[in-house]
User: Which sequence fits this backbone?
């Protein structure tokens, strides 16, 4: 079955629910038992619920995994994944993972004895070198945020497997429509379903998907033990969002390509970060492991923080905001928003210049988005 067909039909049988074409939202925290332990698959809804199970079915199918676990947020999923580890274990992590991922390792799990090393994972040899006998997990993200760096998922997961290290790929930016890390050798894929999977900026949710029954069982145990479970209605909303994932991604990628062409021609734009560009250092890897190059773009103007603020403020169609992956286009200015807490010198060292702007292309008409961006670029 093709991806777009699975997005509509996997994980749910209407005839198990009176023919209802959509999975019913089961607003039940507990399920009746005929005698102790005798029930129809569900007992208490922290452990599971039919609406969540339907969503997990489609998630497993789209990532070509066997087991999926939906969480209350992307970080909820990350939390249960890290809890596969024990005190004394070591993690090798990409040096530009999502800020919240860095924070949970650095501020929470380090206190419990899980150590980590950050490396530039765009060069596979860096990962090979960072693995020690204590290393039990590799945590990567590709494309990364906000510089759209690309790591060779297959090469990195091969290294991890040879050293018996669990490989985890945050696939939030690409979605399973563009890239399927389990097929590239990853052990676990995680998502912030808040972004493209939900797709409408109306829900916060996460997911973890794997083919390994043992890992799946431990992740589910950790989730049930800690409680980061998604709400019933939220499961329905993400399931509904997933049905249009393919069409939304195609349109958003079309828009991104047109916007990149516009930016390439614009004299006030000094640099563009987009994996399709020949100048991108891992363009060939992106072309190999992704169906298309995604709908996230970074670009720089040669200006100050204040200039960047001017470009992003007061746009008509580009909503100024910190998330991504919705039907509406969003933009943000890392130096004054997502990365403002990093001291200016450290920001510069990480390649996050004052004039850097991040775009999440939505599915509006490209001409309107381009005209609005053009106005913004004329305003400083
Ligand atoms: C947003 C995001 C997360 C965290 O997910 P939440 O749903 O906000 O908890 C993790 N990784 C990436 C790449 C993200 O963009």
Assistant:
């Amino acid at each position: 079955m093709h991806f777009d067909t699975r997005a509509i039909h996997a994980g749910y049988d209407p005839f198990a629910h009176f023919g209802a074409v959509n999975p019913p939202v089961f607003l039940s925290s507990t399920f009746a038992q005929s005698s102790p332990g005798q029930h129809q698959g569900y007992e208490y809804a922290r452990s599971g619920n039919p609406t969540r199970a339907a969503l997990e079915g489609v998630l497993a199918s789209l990532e070509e995994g066997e087991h999926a676990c939906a969480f209350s947020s992307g970080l909820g999923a990350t939390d249960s994944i890290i809890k596969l580890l024990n005190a004394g274990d070591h993690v090798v992590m990409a040096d530009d993972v999502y800020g919240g991922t860095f924070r949970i390792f650095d501020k929470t799990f380090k206190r419990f004895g899980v150590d980590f090393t950050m490396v530039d994972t765009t060069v596979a040899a860096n990962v090979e070198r960072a693995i020690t006998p204590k290393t039990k997990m590799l945590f990567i993200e590709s494309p990364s945020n906000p510089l759209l760096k690309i790591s060779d998922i297959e090469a990195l997961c091969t290294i991890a497997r040879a050293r018996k290290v669990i490989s985890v790929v945050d696939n939030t930016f690409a979605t399973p429509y563009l890239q399927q890390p389990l097929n590239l050798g990853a052990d676990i894929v995680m998502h912030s379903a808040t972004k493209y999977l939900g797709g409408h900026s109306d829900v916060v949710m996460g997911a973890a998907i794997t083919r390994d029954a043992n890992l799946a069982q431990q992740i589910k145990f950790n989730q049930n033990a800690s409680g980061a479970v998604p709400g019933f209605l939220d499961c329905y909303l993400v399931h509904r969002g997933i049905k249009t994932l393919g069409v939304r991604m195609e349109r958003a990628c079309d828009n991104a390509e047109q916007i990149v062409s516009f930016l390439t021609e614009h004299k006030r734009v000094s640099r563009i970060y987009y994996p399709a560009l020949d100048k991108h250092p891992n363009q060939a890897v992106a072309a190999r492991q992704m169906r298309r190059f995604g709908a996230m773009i970074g670009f720089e103007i040669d200006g100050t923080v204040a200039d960047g603020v001017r470009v992003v403020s007061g746009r008509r169609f580009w909503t100024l905001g910190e998330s991504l992956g919705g039907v509406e286009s969003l933009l943000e200015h890392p130096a004054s928003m997502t990365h403002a807490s990093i001291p200016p010198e450290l920001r510069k060292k990480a390649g996050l210049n004052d004039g850097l702007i991040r775009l999440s292309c939505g599915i509006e008409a490209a001409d309107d988005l381009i005209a609005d961006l053009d106005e913004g670029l004329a305003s400083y």
In short: Residues 245-265 form the longest helix (21 residues).
